[in-house]
Amino acid sequence: MKRVLYVIATLDPAGAERQMAHLCRRLPRGEFEPAVCALTRGGPLEEDLRRAAIPVHVLHKRGRWDLSVLPRLVALIRRFRPDLVHTWLPTANTLGRAAALAAGTRVIIASERAADVWKGPLRRATDRALTRPTARILTNAYAVRRFLVERIGLPEKKIEVIHNGFDLVEFDDAAARPLQGPVPESADAAVIGAVARLEPQKGFPWLIEAAALLRRQKAPPFQVWIAGAGPEEDALRRLARASGVAEQVRFLGLRLDVPALMGRFDLLALPSLWEGLPNVVLEAMAARRAVAATRVNGTPEAVEDGRTGLLIPPRDAPALADALAALLRDAPRRRALGEAGRQRVATEFSMTRMVERTTEVYRRTLAEAAQ
């Protein structure tokens, strides 16, 4: 049996973290023995993993520059003796790969999940250096692979694209699923949903500006429900008040009941400035919800403009308002887009397909190392 250690910063219920947890739970257990290391903190996914009998180690990294976590991670890797270390997201891709090399791990795989335009010259040079001893880079979108090759300078032959996977059963009868927290009273208003970390990447100021434009244009009654937490929350609340849409834009906080929330949305908005392959878009499609999203990176690989949703330019509140208004005014079109989205997720983004393709990469890479 081959041991696989997953290294990630936290076990918060964000997109990449959920994909990793799904993969851990679905690995062929007669063939692979998984364990998880969270560098900074556990989170809601920690208990899910433990219930599946997957060991979880939390190293409690303190702040961005706490390098004392490195020797502790090296010691953990030496104790567990993994055949393969699989790191996820920027922090773990740097610290996890460095520790795996120090511990003598022969097979290292890294997951790059977004076109991280914020990386400066030092970070890009570090990525290039750590890619030399890395067997594979897995990413979730062809657009991210292009970014890694063209902007970071990574070798294309090492990068494989495996789209995110979803269990459609989670989103069946979404409107009937019980909520795990309060939601605003929407009466006859249509609900524009948004689910994401409240960070600059997600472009929520443009959604709030679009809401203000909709209000001035006397669009059909609507509310915007923003589910998520993050450093931008206070600034976004102030912007909603200053824009006169505090009654229309409601903040729900961090939510663990995304499938049930999707069932209460009439459509989903995602105004991101950059992305990988956004999970929330595919979750909305799985729940038969129309999508209005920005045309960035991997999002067009999920949303077919005019067929499963509407794509608009980033940083363009009037275009976003126009797309939202068109969907608010046309319920039959919303339903048609939602049904087409559900079919696309079923055929192109199944959980089974994601797990099978990742498992095949593990087998192939371990065999190459053995030779």
List keywords for this structure.
seven-stranded parallel sheet, six-stranded parallel sheet, Rossmann fold, alpha/beta, 13 strands, 19% strand, 371 residues
CATH topology of the largest domain: Rossmann fold
The strand count comes to 13
Low-confidence stretches: none
Strand order of the largest sheet: 3-2-1-4-5-6-7
Q: Assign the structural class, choosing from mainly alpha, mainly beta, alpha/beta, alpha+beta, or little secondary structure.
A: alpha/beta
- In helices, the fraction of residues equals 40-55%
Mean pLDDT: 95
The SSE order reads EHEHEHEHEHEHEEHEHEHEHEHEHHH
Distance between the termini: 18 Å
CATH class of the largest domain: Alpha Beta
Work out the count of structural domains: 2
- The gross shape turns out to be globular
Q: Approximately what portion of the residues adopt beta-strand conformation?
A: 15-25%
Rg, please? Answer: 21 Å
Count of discrete alpha- or pi-helical segments spanning 4 or more residues: 14
- The CATH homologous superfamily of the largest domain is named Glycogen Phosphorylase B
Largest sheet: 7 strands, parallel
* Shape-level CATH architecture of the largest domain: 3-Layer(aba) Sandwich
Explained architecture:
By secondary structure, the chain is an alpha/beta fold. It has 2 domains: 2-165 and 350-370, Rossmann fold, CATH 3.40.50.2000; 168-348, Glycogen Phosphorylase B (Rossmann fold, 3-Layer(aba) Sandwich), CATH 3.40.50. It is built from 14 helices and 13 strands. It has helices at 15-26, 44-51, 69-80, 89-103, 121-131, 142-152, 204-216, 233-242, 258-264, 279-286, 299-302, 317-328, 331-348, 351-370; strands at 2-10, 32-41, 56-58, 84-88, 107-112, 136-139, 159-161, 190-195, 222-227, 249-253, 267-270, 290-294, 309-312. The strands form 2 sheets. A 7-stranded parallel sheet has the order 3-2-1-4-5-6-7, sandwiched between helices. Strands 10-9-8-11-12-13 form a 6-stranded parallel sheet, sandwiched between helices. Helix 3 (69-80) packs across helix 4. The two termini are 18 Å apart.
